[in-house]
Design brief:
The structure is a single chain. By secondary structure, the protein is mainly beta. It has two domains: 134 residues, Jelly Rolls (Sandwich), CATH 2.60.120; 88 residues, Jelly Rolls. The chain is globular, with a radius of gyration of 21 Å. The protein starts with a helix and ends in a 7-residue tail after the last strand.
């Protein structure tokens, strides 16, 4: 009984060590350079996949779009995903059927699952947008959701008031949260002075991305540090506890997406 008990304790100890090793290995921090983005077409707009399932993403994506005046990102529907669209430059109309709603640089639209939506670039200059879907919509990248390509109207709904229009550029913190309907992810706009830091945590089954709008940043954890420049993205899978520091030479602006939202998000 003594030997059996001792062997049992050894097995339990090895099991705990193995579990700890697996957990440690599960964490991943990757800096995705803008040039690594893969192009995809929707309507008359070519976008880049920055964070996507090909990188192992299971809870969030990040896409980057440059759209010329009058160009349309075709109307489509996400069957199981929420979509959040941020205008970084210029102005666009969110299109739902025949309805157009203008939003401009510094503003965002949160589109719940099942709602028909697309964008049409307004004004005289190009528009730059980023968007994130939670969870990833694998079909989006195949072109099968492109209603301009298929000639068939998207199968979805248009519910008045369902799409939420928000501002993010004037905030230093969250702009989407579970309280306003974003249950699958939270988005934040962070402003950091040179060498200013904030700490963030990614849960065991969570993912987080940090897209550098302006400047540069450094991300540190127990294993080391990672540097990202303008238009780069840091993609993290949990569990992780991180310190994020603004780079030298002026203000750093970051879009932070956490999926699912942290326990304290409201």
């Amino acid at each position: 009984m003594h030997l059996s008990s001792r062997r049992g304790r050894q097995i339990a100890c090895c099991g705990a060590l193995l579990a700890g090793f697996v957990e440690a290995r599960a964490q991943s921090i990757r800096v995705v350079k803008f040039s690594e983005g893969n192009p995809f077409q929707m309507g008359s707009v070519t976008s880049r996949r920055i964070v996507h399932p090909g990188l192992g993403a299971k809870k969030t994506t990040l896409n980057y779009s440059v759209s010329q005046p009058g160009a349309e990102f075709a109307q489509h529907v996400h069957d199981y995903s929420d979509d959040t669209i941020l205008v970084l430059q210029g102005e666009v109309n969110l299109r739902q059927g025949d309805s157009l709603r203008l939003f401009r640089a510094g503003e965002a639209a949160f589109v719940p699952t099942g709602q028909i939506h697309g964008t049409v670039t307004a004004g005289t200059g190009e528009a730059i947008m980023i968007s994130f879907q939670n969870p990833p919509d694998l079909i989006l990248y195949t072109g099968a959701r492109d209603s301009m390509k298929t000639g068939a109207p998207p199968k979805g709904i248009i519910t008045p008031g369902a799409v939420k229009f928000l501002t993010f550029a004037d905030k230093n913190g969250s702009f989407t949260s579970p309280a306003m309907g974003s249950q699958r992810a939270s988005g934040a706009h962070r402003r950091l002075k040179a060498s200013e830091s904030f700490r963030t945590k990614v849960d065991d089954d969570g993912e987080q991305l940090l897209f550098v709008l302006q400047g540069s940043l450094q991300v540190r954890d127990q294993s080391g540090s990672h540097t990202a420049g303008e238009k780069d993205t840091v993609f993290i899978t949990g569990p992780a506890e991180l310190e994020v520091t603004g780079g030298p030479g002026g203000e750093t602006r970051v879009i932070q997406v956490q999926a699912p939202p942290s326990a304290g998000a409201k």
